[in-house]
C-alpha cells in the first residue's frame, strides 16, 4: 500500500526520530541526517528537464542548418527515377544476381556472324519459343521480354565482357513501371508505351533534386526534370544514352526497345563487368541511388534468373 505522506515508493518512508535521540546507530534512519532524500526527486526532474531542452535545441539546429539535397548529391550519371528515394540504409545488396542469357533466334545468330546485327530490330533477336515460355512462367509481357532479351543479346555482341543478363533489364522494367503498365499505360505491339509514363517532379522532396534540363520537351515540366518512359530515364541521361533499338531511325524514350537497349548499354558503361557483385551494385546505384531500389532490383533479377523453359 502506498504511504499518503510518501507517494513515491522509490524513496520509502522512515519512522520519525527525535533529534535528542540521535545516535550513530539510528543516523541512517533519521531524515535530518540525510537531507539529500528530500531534494533527490526535484533535483532529478530538473536535470532531466535540462537534458530534454538541450536535445530539442540540438535537433532544431540540425534541421535548420542541414544542407539541401541539390544536384551535387545526384548520381554521377544523373539518372533518378520517379520512385527514387534517398538511401536510408548503409549497404546495398552484397551479391549480384545470376546473369541469365536468353536463347538467341536463328536470325540473331546469322546476323552476328555476318556483322549486320545493327540493322535488325532487337525484338527479333531472341528465340520466339523461348520468349513465349519464359513470358508465361514469369508473368512478363511477351513484348517487354522481347525487348529485354533482345537488348541483352545486342549488348553481348558489342560489349562481350559486360555479362549483362536479360533478367537485370527485366527487373529494372518491373521495379520502374511494371513493364510499361503503371499509371494506366499500355505496352503496344510496336513497343510504344502510351500514355507516356511520367514520374514525379525531382524537386528534392524525397528524391534527388534535379532542375529542368530539357525545357520540358521530353517530360513536360519546365521547372524540374521527371523520369520518363518504360525504363524511366530522366531527360539529361536520355540525351547521352538514347538508342534506336527497333531500328526505325528514331530514339524514342517511350519505345521499349529503344529504352531497354539504352539501359543495357548504360549499365555496361557505368559498371563494366556486371558478373562481379561490386560492379553490378555500382551500375544499379548509378541508375538509381536508392539502396531500397538496389535491393528490389536484385530480388526481382534473381527471381527471373531461376525461371527456365522446362
Automatic annotation (TrEMBL):
GO MF assignments: peptidoglycan lytic transglycosylase activity
Q: Does the keyword 4Fe-4S apply?
A: no
Stored InterPro entries: Lysozyme-like_dom_sf (IPR023346), MltB-like (IPR043426), SLT_2 (IPR031304)
Q: What is this protein called?
A: Lytic transglycosylase domain-containing protein
A Gene Ontology annotation in the biological process aspect, one of them, is:
peptidoglycan catabolic process
One Pfam family named in its UniProt record: SLT_2
Origin superkingdom: Bacteria
Where do transmembrane segments lie in this chain?
A: 47-66
Q: What segments bear the compositional bias annotation Pro residues?
A: 1-12
Where in the numbering of this chain does the Transglycosylase SLT domain appear? 223-284
Which intervals carry biased composition (Low complexity)?
Answer: 74-108
Give me the stretches of Polar residues compositional bias. Answer: 14-23
Residue ranges of the region described as Disordered? 1-25, 74-115
Q: Which UniProt keyword terms apply here? A: Membrane, Transmembrane, Transmembrane helix
Amino acid at each position: 500500500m502506498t504511504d499518503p505522506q510518501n507517494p513515491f515508493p522509490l524513496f520509502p518512508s522512515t519512522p520519525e526520530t527525535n533529534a535528542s535521540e540521535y545516535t550513530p546507530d539510528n543516523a541512517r534512519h533519521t531524515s535530518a541526517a540525510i537531507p539529500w532524500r528530500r531534494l533527490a526527486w526535484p533535483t532529478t526532474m530538473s536535470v532531466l528537464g535540462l537534458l530534454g531542452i538541450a536535445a530539442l535545441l540540438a535537433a532544431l539546429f540540425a534541421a535548420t542548418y542541414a544542407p539541401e539535397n541539390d544536384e551535387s548529391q545526384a548520381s554521377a550519371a544523373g539518372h533518378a527515377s520517379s520512385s527514387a528515394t534517398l538511401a536510408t540504409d548503409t549497404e546495398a545488396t552484397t551479391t549480384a544476381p545470376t546473369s541469365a542469357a536468353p536463347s538467341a533466334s536463328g536470325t540473331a545468330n546469322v546476323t552476328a556472324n555476318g556483322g549486320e546485327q545493327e540493322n535488325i530490330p532487337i525484338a527479333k533477336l531472341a528465340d520466339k519459343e523461348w520468349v513465349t515460355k519464359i513470358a508465361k512462367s514469369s508473368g512478363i509481357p511477351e513484348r517487354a521480354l522481347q525487348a529485354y532479351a533482345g537488348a541483352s543479346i545486342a549488348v553481348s555482341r558489342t560489349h562481350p565482357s559486360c555479362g549483362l543478363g536479360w533478367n537485370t533489364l527485366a527487373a529494372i522494367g518491373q521495379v520502374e513501371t511494371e513493364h510499361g503498365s503503371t499509371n494506366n499505360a499500355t505496352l503496344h505491339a510496336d513497343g510504344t508505351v502510351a500514355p507516356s509514363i511520367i514520374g514525379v517532379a525531382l524537386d528534392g522532396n524525397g528524391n534527388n533534386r534535379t532542375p529542368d534540363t530539357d525545357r520540358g520537351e521530353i517530360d513536360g515540366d519546365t521547372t524540374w526534370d521527371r523520369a520518363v518512359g518504360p525504363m524511366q530515364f530522366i531527360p539529361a541521361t536520355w540525351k547521352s544514352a538514347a538508342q534506336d533499338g527497333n531500328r526505325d531511325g528514331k530514339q524514342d524514350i517511350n519505345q521499349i526497345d529503344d529504352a531497354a537497349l539504352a539501359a543495357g548499354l548504360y549499365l555496361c558503361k557505368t559498371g563494366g563487368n556486371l558478373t562481379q557483385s561490386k560492379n553490378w551494385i555500382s551500375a544499379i546505384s548509378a541508375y538509381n541511388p536508392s539502396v531500397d531500389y538496389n535491393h528490389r532490383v536484385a530480388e526481382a533479377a534473381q527471381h527471373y534468373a531461376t525461371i527456365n523453359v522446362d
